[in-house]
Every structure is written in structure tokens, then in C-alpha cells.
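Protocol step 4 of 6: structure prediction from sequence.
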Amino acid sequence: MNLFSGGVRADWTISDKDRLTLEAQGYHGGFPNQASGYASPTSGLVPILDSATVQGGHFLSRWSHTFSENASFDVLGFCDWNDRQSFAAEARTTCDVELQDNWRVRPRHLLVWGASLWTSGARVYESFTFNALPQHQRTNIAGIFAQYEFSVIPDRLRLIAGSKLDHNTYTGMEIQPQIRGVWTPFPAHTFWAAVSRAVRTPGRHETSVRYALTQLPGPMPTFLMSEGNPGLKSEALRAYEIGYRFNPSTRVSMDGTIFYNHYDNLTNVNLLNPLSVAGPPVVHQNPTFIEIPVPWQNIGSGQTHGAEFYLKVVPLQRWELSGSVTELRGNSVNDNDTLNLPIANTTKHQFNLQSRLNLTSRLSFDSGLYHYGGIAGYHFAGIPAQDVATHNRLDIGVSFRPRKQFAFSVWGRDVTANDHWETRPFLFTTTGSGTGPMMVFKLTWENAGND
């Protein structure tokens, strides 16, 4: 992977009550990409691209105003654009505006509320295998949110409840509530539990994209095509979480969490028995081929469950160590020859160890070891997919700060590895992404003035 990026950020304290942040960044690069598809009705299944080009950037601004010690207000504006030139890709521009008001009604009561407006427009790069109608489409989400926190017993027991209410282009109104309790019986021990609901609205590839899944035998080129379904419901998640934190001193901190997630209305394409839901065949001319459309559907439910553990230790004043472990299990409609395979495309085992050592006041040395469990292979429309090997990644870096305002960093990422695939494919497409050793150079200059 080759990626070049640069950015600038400015923070101003305009007055005792006002702060302003401006940030901008741009990037350009490329990475290996694995894809197979049909270049034409008569080409058969062929490799389409073996590399991808990406470029983009973003601009962010944030204004924070403090009315009093009990009230404040934030306004955030954000725009992002990206252009990925590869198989089944798009050029997209996204903008978001958020308003948030924080009001401590009484010493034990805190109300946070606000509103947001998000809009995103994309133009799809089309081919015989992958095309969209319309080619350019805009998606909008407008919402409001509120959260109330009540300190039942100050510094011991808190209850937090809130909800988001959004209206989106695809499914209309969606509600996403959450309730959380936090209990600290002793200063070093904290327990929490939470129940929440979230939704994933259908993506464009599920509502308006036509995709050539496989070619069927016959005298005339005949293709099974996934077809967008504008009538899809949102996938719904009910999440349950219990956690514990042990923080005996400023040098030791430990977190443990177990979770269970239940999903409804999982979106998929039925390839086990596609003709049972397929629409009538469509005969195309110039070029001549037959299309058998198979719509995306809300097929079934599923669940994931797992645990996470995090530990941070500061053995010396200048040395910090941390590590985490994540274990994930679950099941869903992940049968062979179904199109959307979120569980099958996710590693079950992950852990990392990180070290940060300040050798001097100006020089620091960082390192990290990351382990990713392998992803088993499966078949998609008769084509082998995934079969990604277990991988251990080693990162090392040095940061030098000759002056307070100036810093230079050099990072080596995955320094012991050869080129390898991280995933193939991911979710609905048959594209994959590969990576290998990388060098990262970062130059930072900070102006401490308030001008």
C-alpha cells in the first residue's frame, strides 16, 4: 500500500467562553485489490482489477461556547470527499452538521440534547458486472437526540437514559434508545450494564444496484443478478452489555466486558434457492443476454456474543504498557451461497500489546504487536472466498520533538510481514484488500499562540 496524506489543524481560544477548531486533511494512494467479475456477457469470469486508487480529504470545524459552569453549546460542521477507483467502487461526498446543548439542570441532573443533518451523494463506477440506477444518488438523514443523566447516589450510582430519533431516505423514521447504569461501590471498582437498540439502514447496493452474481448454463448468456430492493427494512440490533473496571491506582487499570447482540431483519440475497424468489427473466439486446433478477431480502435473524479485556500498566514514570483481547462468536444466515456474510468475514480472535517509552523529554519509542485470527474459507456463487491466514503484525516507531512546537515521527507498520490479504471478500462484494510492510513519516508543527 502507498498512501500519502497531509493535514492542518488550528485551535483558538477566542475568549474565556469561546473556543474554535478548524481541521483539514487530504490523501492519495493505492493498494492491492482482488476482484473477479464479468467484463461482458461473453467474457466468462475474469480478473477485473488487481489494484485500487484512492484519494480524498475532509474539512472540520467546531465552535464551543460556555454560557456558565452549568451550560454549554457546541456546533460541529464536517465535509468529507473520497474517490475510490476500483471494482464496485464510487466517488462520494458527505457533509454533516451537528448541534449539541449541555445543561446541568441541578447538581445531580444533566441533560444533553441536540440535532443533526447528514447528507451524502455518490456516483458509482459502472461495469457490466456492477451498475446502479440512478448512477448518482443522494441520501439524507435528519435527527434529534436527547440524553438524561441522574446521579442517584453522588459518586456511587448513576442512571443514564436517552434516544435518537432519525428520519432517513430509505426506511423513514427510526428510533434508537439506550439505558445504562453505572455503580461505583468503592473508588477502585466500577460496574456497569447497558441495553440499547440500533439500526443499520439499507445501503445503496441493497436498494438500487444491479450485480452479476453468476452465469448459468445455456445456449444464450444467462446471468443471475442481485437486484436492489427499495422496500427493505432496516436491520435492527438489540445489544446487552455488562462490564467491570478495576483501577487501584494511577499506574494500573483493568476493564472487562461481556456482550450479547441480537439482530433482526438481516439483509441477504437467497442463493440457496434463488429461483423461488427471482423475478421474470429480462432479455437484453446489444449486447444480447438474459438477466434473472434476485432481490435483496430481509431473510432472518442472528446473534453475536463475546468478551473484551483491557489492561494498562505504568511500570515506570516514562513507560506505559497496555494490552487487550477480544473474542467474538455468533451465527446468522451465514450459509454457503448467501451473499451477505458478516460473521463469516470477521475474525474470532484478536489481541494486541502496546508499549510507549519516553527515552528522554524529546525522544520516544513506540511498539505494538497485533494478532488477528484467520478467517475460514467459504463459497460464494461457486467461487472460493476468504481463507485468510492467521496474522501477527509488528509495528515500531520513533518520535522526536526537537522543539515544543515541532515533532517528527517514523513508523514501520507490519515490519516482519510479506504482502498478504487482510480480507477477501468483505461483506457483499467480491473485492478484497491486501497489504504488506509500510513506512509512515509524520511531521507535526504546533503554534501555541492564540492569534
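Step 5 (inspection) to follow. Residues 426-431 have pLDDT under 50 and may be disordered.
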